[in-house]
Each structure stands twice: as C-alpha cells, then as structure tokens.
Write a structure and sequence with these properties.
Shape: elongated
Structural class: mainly beta
Number of domains: 2
Distance between the termini: 66 Å
Radius of gyration: 21 Å
Number of helices: 0
Oligomer: single chain
C-alpha cells in the first residue's frame, strides 16, 4: 500500500514478523514503511531463517531494536542458509544495542540493490551492515551509520563482500569508519565513493585485517583516523590492489599514513594519491617488512607534519617503477624517506 505505515507491536521470537522460512516477497510502494511501535519492547523487524528466501521491494524498514547481549541485526537478521534480496528499499534508524549489524546482520547470502542503509547503530561491528557470508551491494548508499568497535558503514568478516557503483559516506566507528574487513575476507570495491568517514583510532575509510581487497575506479576521500594510522586505508596483514583510483584529502594527523598505512602487501596501478595529511607519510606509509609497489602512480601534494610528505618507508620494500610513469613530487616537507630512486 502506498503511503502506509505498518506498525508492529508484538515480539515474535525476537522479531516483529514471523520468521521467513520459505520464499517470501514483500512488495511496498511509495512511502511504505514497516516499523516497530515506539512503546513496544525491543525487537528487530525481520528474521530470515535457514531455508528462507526474502525479497524486499520498495519498503522502508525502520525502528527495529534488539538489545540482548550478542544479538545481531537491529532491522534484519539473515541466518546462515538464508537469502535476502533488498531492492529499492531503505533500512533506516535500526539498532543492535549490544551486537553486530545495526541495520542488517547477514550470515547467509544478501544482495542490496538501489537501496539505502542509513543512520543505523551497532554496539559492536557493522553499524549499517554486518556480514559473515556473501554480501553484494550495488548502486546503493550506506551513510551516517555508527558502530562502537568496527565498521561504521560495513563490517565483513570471513566471507566475501562485493561493492559496486555505491557510496559509503559519513559513517563512524573505532576502527574502519567506512568499512571493516578481516579474518580472511575477500573484498571487491568497484566504481564506488568512500568519503567523509571517521575512525576514532585507525582506518578512517577502510581497515583491512588479514584479507584481500581489490579496489578499482573508486574514490577514497576526506576520511579521518583519530589517534591511529591510515586516514584513508589501514592494511593490517592483508593484501591490497588499487587500480585507476583517487586517494585524496584523507587525514591521520596524530599518526602515520594519511592516504594509506601499509602493514601487508599493497600494489597501486594508475592511481593518484594527493592532498593527504599525516604526522609521518602524508601520502603513504610502509611499515617494516612490508611491500609497497607503484605502477604509473602519482603521489603529489601530500603533507607530513614530521617527515615523509609523499612516502615514508619504515624498513620495508618500496618499488616506485618510475619507468612506468610513477611520480612522487611536490610533497612537503620532502617527497620520500628511505625510498630508493625517490628524490628527498
């Protein structure tokens, strides 16, 4: 029904609606919402159990709240073996007070297309979305979410995450303000903007721990790390490839790596790193024993408060490959520290 709000008042095993255990489609319309009544006890809106297959079309899911310890999915919970397809919908202002996934927690297979996951809150990981399974986000917005521990926008653990033609913006967390990925997760980011996210410690835009990340034709800009490293991206024992992208105006003013902090293996192809700021390594910081390789990449106009305006190499390996067109110029107070073939 168009312009209709369905108000839920009863708790059915932790959710406002019966658990989804078969193929179910919920079709909404313009301004159609399903919400928990403000006076009702806390419960999420929907649970997709093992064997369930939920499709949401043109619906707003809002007001869900789960408050039990370690309970996940303030708006929607997709259990292992469950499937959810969220199309042209909004997952807004839901809360997982003491768990993961303020908007959505998915242990199964979830696809989000042409939708918004905004203004949700998690007590642990994944303010907008928490995933341990297969997560696909296309042509969607994940904005203004908050998580205490990690992944203000998205937290992906163990499984796979694919994000295309989307925006992750204005999210906040302790680590990985925009996105937190760890425990061997494989992540792909294509044609996506990750901007204006904040981490109180490390990884303003993205924090990657022990996983793989491929980023192509994307923008990582205006993200901030507070007391820790990696204003744009913090790599902690992972592998990253960045291609045809822009890393711009990120900040780690109290520590290292305004654009990138690398404690793993990182390769940049045809990428521009510009206007980033940090205490050391305004553009890029490469930690000891780690590998940073650049092909046809520009590191330009970055600023370090102390040293290494363009690149600071703290005992690892940095390969500029200047024959491919890599340039490190116009950085302050110097271009590089401990980088062979780079003018100081």
């Amino acid at each position: 029904a168009t312009d209709c709000t369905y108000l839920l008042t009863a708790n059915i095993d932790g959710a406002g609606l019966p658990a989804i255990t078969t193929p179910i489609t919920l079709n909404g319309g313009k301004h159609t919402s399903i919400t928990r009544a403000a006076a009702a006890e806390p419960f999420r809106i929907l649970t997709v159990d093992t064997g369930g297959d939920l499709t949401l079309n043109k619906l707003k899911i809002t007001g869900g709240q789960i408050s039990d310890d370690d309970s996940n999915g303030g708006g929607i919970l997709v259990e292992a073996g469950g499937v959810a397809r969220i199309n042209h919908s909004e997952i807004i202002r839901n809360i997982a007070s003491n768990g993961d996934g303020g908007g959505i927690a998915t242990l199964g297979i979830t696809t989000i297309k042409k939708s918004a996951v905004n203004r949700n809150t998690a007590g642990l990981y994944g303010g907008g979305i928490y995933s341990t399974g297969s997560l696909i986000i296309k042509e969607s917005h994940v904005e203004a979410n908050n998580a205490s521990s990690g992944g203000g926008g998205v937290a992906s653990v163990e499984g796979t995450a694919q994000i295309e033609h989307s925006t992750i913006s204005g999210n906040q967390s302790n680590q990985g303000g925009g996105m937190f990925a760890e425990d061997g997760v494989t992540s792909t980011i294509l044609d996506t903007r990750i901007t204006r996210n904040t981490a109180s410690v490390s990884g303003g835009g993205i924090l990657l721990g022990d996983g793989q990340l491929a980023m192509r034709r994307s923008i990582l800009a205006a993200n901030t790390a507070g007391s820790g490293d990696g204003g744009g991206l913090h790599v902690d024992d992972g592998s990253v490839t960045v291609t045809d992208s822009i890393i711009k105006a990120n900040t780690a003013i109290a520590s290292n790596g305004g654009g990138f902090f690398n404690d793993g293996e990182m390769t940049l192809f045809n990428t521009k790193v510009t206007g980033n700021t940090a205490n050391q390594g305004g553009g890029l910081y490469n930690d000891s024993f780690d590998v940073l390789i650049l092909f046809h990449t520009a590191v330009v106009d970055n600023l370090a408060v102390t040293d290494g305006g363009g690149i600071f190499n703290d005992g690892g390996t940095v390969e500029l490959n200047t024959a491919t067109g890599t340039t490190v110029v116009k950085n302050r107070p110097n271009n590089c520290v401990n980088v062979t073939g780079c003018p100081g």
